[in-house]
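Lay summary. Proteins are chains of building blocks that fold into shapes, and those shapes determine what they do. In this project we predict the shape from the chain. Here is one chain we studied, written as its sequence of building blocks.
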Amino acid sequence: MELLSKLGIDWKLLIAQIINFTILAVVLMKFVYKPVLATLDRRSKMIEKSISDSHEASEKLKNIEKMERERTAEAHKQIGAMLDKAKQEAEEMKKAIVDEARRASDDMLARTHVQLKEEKSRVLAEAKSELSQIVVAASAKILEREYSAADQTRLAQAVAQEMNAAK
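And here is the predicted shape, written in a compact code that computers can read:
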């Protein structure tokens, strides 16, 4: 102890300081260090949980994006199928309309032919009628000059009968 007193160290003071330091270390350890470690541990666990949640959210996002791509691809397929079906239906409608127009045109053409035949027949009948009247009148005039009244009547009746038979 002499050595300590020669160095200017008071051993009672040194022991008191060691006891004070030990008490302070125990108090700090119990009331400061352990709560700080517990807080750091909670924060570490919270950070780890956040990181795992982030990875989980990232995986979910990837799955959602994949599902969205699949749905988009399926929607494109369905739209393509709908467009193909619409084109096919449009072609069928076009064909039906063209066929209907062709039938209507053919019907109109047939009616026109019938009307033309009827008109031709009517015109020919009128022409025959007029011609027969002209022939009868001409015959009557010729007969008046060359035949007697009885011959003329008989000849006119014969011509009229032939004309009526020819109609």
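What the prediction tells us: The chain is about 95% helix and 0% strand.
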